Amino acid sequence: MQHRILNYLIAAVFVALIFLTIVFVTMILPATTFQPVATAAAHGYNAQERHGREVYKREGCVYCHTQFVRYQDREMGEMVEAGDYVNETPHLLGTERTGPDLSNVGGKYPDAWHWAHVMQPRSVKPGSVMPSFSYLSDDDMRDLIAYLQTLGRERELNARRRAPHINEKAGAEEGAVKTPITWLEAPQELRDEWKRVSKNVDPDNSANANSGRGIYMQNCSTCHGVTGRGNGPMSSSMIKKPANFTRSFYGAYTDALWYWRVKEGVAGTRMPRWGRTLSEQQMGYLVAFLKTLPTDGSQASSKVEVTQYSQLDQPEPMSANYNEIEKLSELHASSPYIYGGGRH
Ligand code: HEC
Ligand code: HEC
Known about the structure:
13 helices, Cytochrome Bc1 Complex, Chain D, domain 2, binds heme C, mainly alpha, disordered C terminus
């Protein structure tokens, strides 16, 4: 009898030890060792905004809205850093994006829009599944909106101050494109690598672009489509659709950024890491080609389209794609890249 109790006791001690180790490693250790420095984007809340934040928490907005923007979320605006959150206790990062990310929603809409939207989302967004919070008191509503308007404000101002090279590049062209995706640039080592690669492959040379076109048709068009609209035949079976390179923000991509995206692929999607398959030279040709795809980048900055998270592309019917392939084979019957016919 005594023995049995001892057995249970030993097991219990082990379980408790394992549990405490997990708590220590995943909670206590990070909390004490990870102390990011406040960035310029960290917002200090006043009393009203702090109360608005309480309302946000209390009403469960966090269950449907996240507050973080990573590399792969570039369509959602400025990217976040750990130091942006030093005043956020408890944090409201969220996990689920039933609605869009709100990290940068501050300044996007006037207060009156928010008022109407929170009262009755369908009044400004037909078909929205966001619930109505019309039962909130006027005070709660006002404070909640004051809080929403703080989100990402400093981050946006800071990004404008930084005015990185992407703006310079785009600004040099007519219409002075200023893109809202100012933070996006390739990591330093990739920029260095591109500097080296582009010495051998001039990305502004049309012969190089033509070579890239051939490589693209063979390796990329099944997903990205022959016209680059992301509607290749393979795309129909994919949940995360291939990129549509005719979107206007691609007009602001630098050569190094193209190179990086092609080389490293996109984690979490079916986009391969082409650096494992293609040579640097081939990827250079691809950069030269991708740059030539039409975007509407000539629009003024405020008009650059940033597609909403929930907004789907409208791919062309699949038959259009096959027709394009047919046409290409007619046009390039003598080129080495022959599709569906031509001389063999
Ligand atoms: C059941 C999920 C759900 C909850 C809970 C929810 N939302 Fe939403 N929210 C959505 C969806 C879906 C959208 C996109 C459609 C729309 O704009 O209404 C959205 C859109 C928004 C937008 C517009 C974002 C943009 O960039 O256009 C704001 C602001 C917003 N919600 C704030 C809130 C606030 C504040 C609360 C809490 C009081 C809240 N939401 C609670 C689902 C939700
Ligand atoms: C198996 C399908 C598939 C193939 C083949 C493929 N891609 Fe992709 N590609 C994707 C998907 C999916 C994404 C991710 C789109 C997203 O993140 O929204 C993507 C993203 C990209 C991006 C990043 C765009 C951005 O927004 O930064 C580039 C650049 C790209 N592809 C170029 C290429 C090139 C060049 C080739 C051929 C050498 C190629 N892809 C072949 C599926 C594919």
